[in-house]
Design a protein that fits this description.
Elements (H helix, E strand, L loop, with lengths): L1 H13 L5 H7 L6 H15 L6 H7 L13 E6 L8 H4 L2 E7 L12 H4 L12
Antiparallel strand pairs: 1-2
Length: 128
């Protein structure tokens, strides 16, 4: 853990940010594995905001099916396009457009059937 913080602090010092322990203390967090893990996830989310890595991070960390900032299920939201142009309040109202489902089995993709038929030694990923 200390080695990881050493490298992280080297990166943070290059851009004039305070060290990790000081930042955790200001946020009221302890210097332990769980708080450090959350700190690193937040740092990564901010640093790589527009580099399309969030989708894969959430799945690698296995937080896509949990409530909170990594949740990948629920409803997609959009504008009420059926509202009239004269009623801007109704037109600009945010509505739920479709339900997004993410099951635990989706962390692993299914092995294609044609691959499964090649040998009986393969075992299909759980849930598929």
């Amino acid at each position: 853990m200390d080695e990881a913080v050493t490298y992280l602090d080297a990166l943070r010092s290059r851009i004039g940010r305070p060290d990790t322990k000081a930042t955790l203390a200001v946020r009221g967090q302890a210097f332990n594995q769980n708080d450090l893990r959350e700190f690193l996830r937040r740092e990564r989310r901010v640093e790589l905001a527009y580099e399309e890595s969030r989708y894969y991070d959430v799945r690698r960390w296995m937080i896509a099916d949990k409530d909170g900032e990594g949740r990948q299920n629920g409803y997609a939201h959009g504008m009420n396009v059926r509202g009239t142009i004269n009623d801007t309040e109704e037109f600009n109202r945010v509505v739920e457009t479709e339900k997004i489902v993410f099951n635990r089995k989706m962390y692993l993709q299914p092995i294609p059937d044609h691959e499964m038929r090649k040998t009986q030694n393969l075992v299909q990923n759980p849930g598929w």
